[in-house]
Amino acid sequence: MHTEAPARVLCTDCGVSRGADPRQCGQACQFIHPDYASLETRVHGRPRDPARPDELFFGPFERMVQAALKAPRAGAQWTGITTRLGERLLETGQVDAVLAMGADPTDRWRPLPRLVTDAADMVHCRGMRMGYAPLLSLLDEARARGLRRLAVIGVPCQIYPLRALEPTLGFESLTVIGIPCSDNTTTENFHTFLSLLTPAPETVTYLEFRADYHVEMRFQDGRVRLIPFLKLPLSTLPSDFFPLTCRACVDYTNALADLTVGYMGGRGEQWVVVRNPRGQAVFDLLGDEVRVREPTSAGKRASAVKGFLANIERAAGGLPMRTMPDWARPIVAWMMPRTGPRGLEFARTRVEMKALEAVVTLRHRFPKRVRAMIPPHLWSLVEPYGLTPGPDERA
Prior knowledge:
The protein is of the alpha+beta class. The protein is 33% helix and 18% strand.
């Protein structure tokens, strides 16, 4: 494995460039010339269907549910569905290994790829990490060890190249559990962010951006703190805190996974998007360990999305983002969980915001890449907000 990834402007270090053939980046990278329709057809049997409106937002799916483990796992994010799925795949012998993310032994927040062959070791992959991690660099090791049936748990910019290269990898089977992603940053930047939230960042054991407009923090002494989004010190972060790759990403919901497990549409529970029969078979492994109910939707997203668009357009033009007066923040922070977009409408809100950000960012920073990087379905999401493709922008 190559120890360093080549320096590229749009790169999340998924691990392909660290493998035996770094040139594969050219055919696999999400940030060069993605082809979601073709890969969705190969993986799910069809591309997203415009006649099913939520597929424009979330990608192809057979079923969406809210879910929670009846017995939450200690140290897990939410109740631990994702790592429990990895355990069940290993316990039932359906895979030889799970490729997932653990923690660096020197820093609990720094991600470190792990190739797990014993279900008991999935405990080391519980919880959230922040930072780039070359997950796919371990594909070569998996093949060298003779592992034929592989499960992979990853974020969209890891799963897209995995799917693009899948026909050439030589595995007997590949099972993909996707995690939605809402912007990454370096581990060092994340430590800075924690230090802005608490005077004792080293005591934080858990952090989660929740769908009720709060960040949840847990501490070593058992304390739990909820911070409204509007009270986060985001305006003090440097302009490059979130990298260009995240601001130009067009796959927020991990549309190429067999099933996606995240928070956005869950309203206090996890949101599971089952995309194909393989994904359903994996989810069925939880049996009666999991509590399931239909997702709900409430509120309207239009005004929030329009406000977000105005701010990112100001930022792209070099102007400071508009901020809310301090006196209004407690009022709006109280109202948002009660009247703002909730459930699936919250998920649609975040997807539209990310779609708008991708178009605005690419037009400002890489205008020649808009045509290649913005898939046709994304224009359908941004057109209601006045962003339409120019003559040289539609693929």
